[in-house]
Amino acid sequence: MTELAAMEFHPQPQAGEPKVWAFPAPERGTLDNGLTLLRCHRPGQQVVAVEVLLDAPLDAEPAGLDGVATIMARAFSEGTDKHSAEEFAAELERCGATLDAHADHPGVRLSLEVPASRLAKALGLLADALRAPAFADSEVERLVRNRLDEIPHELANPSRRAAKELSRELFPVDSRMSRPRQGTEETVENIDSAAVRGFYEKHVRPATATAVVVGDLTGIDLDALLGDTLGSWTGSTGRPRPVPPVTADDTGRVVIVDRPGAVQTQLLIGRIGADRHARVWPAQVLGTYCLGGTLTSRLDRVLREEKGYTYGVRSFGQVLRSAPDGSGAAMLAISGSVDTPNTGPALDDLWKVLRTLAGGGLTDAERDVAVQNLVGVAPLKYETAAAVASTLADQVEQHLPDDYQATLYQQLAATGTVEATAAVVNAFPVDRLVTILVGDAAAIKEPVEALGIGEVKVVTAE
């Protein structure tokens, strides 16, 4: 019998020493036209990300023109004084760039991504869009029609419909936050090119704007490049708008948006709470993640794994508007969907989870998993220039210091189980939650009333 030749194996790779990581710190400056600049050199990131923040918040929209900020944001890429809409799109495509824009409560944001080798060309196009947007009648009319077409689809989406109802319930009727961010049919159909240009001329200027540039800047004279592009954008001086306080009514109650025959019920349970300026924010983030941030969270373990009511339930905190004086707020919410017959039992168990947290607290194991998921994977989360630029822009938008994100990860790692428990219990008090249910009222109203979690009312779906 012939002996088999001995097999030779390559040495097994060994893990290297972990590198110390921190969220990158930007370099801050100001262009001659007053534009605030944050730059961050990220070696190896050959796709450069640029974020431009405009101080044009939704509460600055004129009465009856909700949605004009959104139409303006979309119209920035629909032609300039140098290029028609088609030419502008073609020029972006030639340099491999993408340009997106959206409006939210804090303001309007434009997001550009482009290969570093084409940065000069793309910044020129971005500067043209900000400096001299065309706002042509035909293009604005098309954007308005597109937005009007979107609204019925949003109302047909249970999660979007629930979000709309929660905003209407939580905030005063005269608050912009009580109304859809992108406007309603009644307000959007009033928007024309004159309204868009009027909003632009009143609120868009470099003196109150900020640009964030992140990527591999090796060999790029960014100062000269910005001077020739965004530096050519001029406008009147202006002061940042005051940030009005956020007020809300979180009296415990239930609103059912009736969808006869629906086989599922969409749940959205929320209130407002502390924003990122509050000392409790790190503990609130950690506790909320333990409650419903992942597949291993308390809510998923009970409602999905043990009871089979749902494919998943999530809890989260989303900053609505932020201010250093404490007048800002975040939306604290729990969302998911359950089958119609189990709507009552699912809500009952959800409230039991919240009561159990108040009585027994989180475990050290839950806290440790949350820290690992939030802090341990942060270096992967910020592998791209776009992710870094977006977070830096968030910090600017929310009036936070440039080292905020780096400090937050240190605080999360140092937060104990007791602190996280107290924060999540305070964030989701069982008697101060507004519950929105989009589903079949005839099937779910009676079992929900029997839970005693608040007065129940039924509204008709649009």
TrEMBL record:
<dbReference type="InterPro" id="IPR007863">
    <property type="entry name" value="Peptidase_M16_C"/>
</dbReference>
<dbReference type="Pfam" id="PF00675">
    <property type="entry name" value="Peptidase_M16"/>
</dbReference>
<keyword id="KW-0378">Hydrolase</keyword>
<feature type="domain" description="Peptidase M16 N-terminal">
    <location>
        <begin position="41"/>
        <end position="167"/>
    </location>
</feature>
<keyword id="KW-0645">Protease</keyword>
<protein>
    <submittedName>
        <fullName>Protease</fullName>
    </submittedName>
</protein>
<dbReference type="InterPro" id="IPR011765">
    <property type="entry name" value="Pept_M16_N"/>
</dbReference>
<dbReference type="InterPro" id="IPR050361">
    <property type="entry name" value="MPP/UQCRC_Complex"/>
</dbReference>
<dbReference type="InterPro" id="IPR011249">
    <property type="entry name" value="Metalloenz_LuxS/M16"/>
</dbReference>
<dbReference type="Pfam" id="PF05193">
    <property type="entry name" value="Peptidase_M16_C"/>
</dbReference>
<feature type="domain" description="Peptidase M16 C-terminal">
    <location>
        <begin position="191"/>
        <end position="374"/>
    </location>
</feature>
<dbReference type="GO" id="GO:0008233">
    <property type="term" value="F:peptidase activity"/>
</dbReference>
<dbReference type="GO" id="GO:0006508">
    <property type="term" value="P:proteolysis"/>
</dbReference>
<dbReference type="GO" id="GO:0046872">
    <property type="term" value="F:metal ion binding"/>
</dbReference>
